[in-house]
Specification:
Elements: H1 4-19, H2 21-32, H3 38-46, H4 50-65, E1 68-72, E2 74-77, H5 106-116, E3 123-126, H6 136-149, E4 154-157, H7 160-170, H8 174-183, E5 188-189, H9 199-205, H10 212-224, E6 228-235, H11 241-258, E7 261-268, H12 283-296, E8 302-303, H13 307-310, H14 312-317, E9 325-328, H15 335-338, H16 349-357, E10 362-365
Parallel strand pairs: 1-9, 1-10, 2-3, 3-4, 5-6, 6-7, 7-8
Helix pairs in contact: 3-11, 4-12, 5-6, 6-8, 7-8, 7-10, 10-11, 11-12
The structure holds ligand V47 and iron/sulfur cluster.
Length: about 375
């Protein structure tokens, strides 16, 4: 039974978070723009007062992005779900010949692109499985053919995992693969494949995937070549709170070195149809992870709520917990919907702007690099 005394005690307990010396020191550090330590991050991970976390995250959010929330007009394309890795959290991938496997030819990819791109599309987000046979030339031709038809569209393509795989199939280095992809039209690398860097958890959930260190190496290499990227963290499966903090700290460290990351995207695990199974994340965990990401990653300009995974309603609320970006309109999302996502496949631009403005924020259309492009369009 939840008695009145217990309620009061809990309430009092929460107040002590703010009164507590350690928490007031953290608040002062955030107000001064100082980075938090691992221990302080851990303390916040254990903090049950989401309003306190929201206060800290919002301070950083508004210092960096004011009252603006960004979105873009994008389309997703998943050319194949055939993959050599067997990540236990993935419901999307298939082996060659397995029921449900698909593998678009170059002609089919172009046909698909022509169906999903509109006059307003500024970004194509292209990711698929780590294919056992397709070489670098296939992906280079894909990029250059799309770029030839749509030179104005940013090609945000291929996770570090796919880039390593195409380099392996072609027997070349990741450096050479990145250079050739860039020459063929690659503009930006999405943040997928990072999962959680902890070797302990990777061994359990994605033992065949490249290591966290390798993921970081590939992004560092891309940054040094002038290719910007995003970063992600898949949470809510087998990882411990400290492993989330360590993941964020590794990203903060790399960002300090290269300044190559644009946005960080926390990805809540969806368990349906996966080998790993387990439960959906809760609203409180989603809020904590987005807020903590904003607080720890104080050298990242943007924290994105990927509405496909968080749900539209929570994505809207997360704008008070550090988030300043709601991703984009998206089309035909396959990875999360294979794992049970109940969100739509696509959002209309007017609705994204409504999710932003009805939270008291100002919607701003951006391109992949966060250049503002839609301010004069007056979509509302
Ligand atoms: O790499 C796979 C994750 C990622 C599941 O860079 C799952 O702006 C939840 O990286 N439940 C792909 N997540 C998506 C991605 C992304 C999405 C939006 C924006 C950006 C960006 C990147 O999805 C995969 C993997 O980490 N994933 N299975 C699942 N069951
Ligand atoms: Fe393959 Fe990516 Fe799925 Fe892992 S998450 S099995 S690498 S498609």
């Amino acid at each position: 039974m939840f008695t009145l005394e217990k309620q009061l005690a809990t309430h009092k307990g929460r107040e002590t978070y703010i009164d507590n010396k350690k928490f007031s020191r953290i608040l002062a550090k955030v107000e001064e723009g100082e980075s938090l330590t691992r221990e302080e991050g851990m303390l916040l991970m254990e903090c049950e007062d989401i309003f306190f976390l929201g206060k800290l995250a919002n301070l950083i959010r508004e210092r960096k992005n004011g009252n603006y929330t960004y979105y873009n007009i994008n389309a997703h394309l998943n050319p194949s779900n055939i993959c050599v890795n067997n990540c236990r959290f993935c419901a999307f991938s298939r082996k060659e010949g397995e029921p449900g496997a698909y593998d678009l030819t170059l002609e089919e990819v172009i046909e698909k692109v022509q169906q999903i791109v509109t006059k307003r599309t500024t970004e194509l987000h292209i990711v698929g499985g780590a294919h056992p046979r397709k070489n670098l030339d296939f992906y280079k031709t894909m990029l250059s053919s799309i770029k030839k038809i749509y030179p104005q569209i940013y090609l945000k393509a291929f996770t570090a995992v796919e880039i390593q795989q195409m380099a392996d199939v072609s027997g070349c280095s990741v450096e050479d693969a990145l250079k050739e992809l860039k020459e063929s039209g690659l503009d930006f690398i999405p943040g997928g494949g990072a999962e959680i860097f902890s070797p302990r958890v990777r061994k359990e959930v994605c033992p065949q995937k490249i290591s966290g260190e390798r993921w970081l190496y590939i992004h560092r290499t891309a940054h040094l070549m002038g290719i910007k990227s995003n970063a992600t963290m898949l949470y809510g499966h087998r990882e411990k709170a400290e492993e989330r903090i360590d993941h964020l700290l590794k990203l903060r460290e790399l960002q300090k070195e290269t300044s190559g990351f644009r946005a960080f995207v926390p990805l809540p695990y969806h368990p349906q149809n996966t080998l790993l199974g387990g439960k959906d994340t809760t609203g409180v965990l989603d809020i904590k992870v987005h807020a903590l990401s904003r607080i720890i990653l104080d050298n990242f300009d943007h924290i994105k709520a990927y509405w496909i995974m968080t749900g539209c309603e929570l994505a809207q609320i997360l704008q008070s917990f550090g988030v300043d970006d709601l991703d984009g309109t998206v089309t035909e999302e396959k990875i999360t919907h294979s794992a049970g996502a109940k969100t739509p496949q696509e959002l209309d631009e007017g609705y994204i702007r409504y999710l932003i403005s009805s939270a008291g924020r100002i919607p701003v259309e951006r391109d992949t690099l966060y250049n503002r492009i839609g301010e004069s369009r007056g979509v509302d």
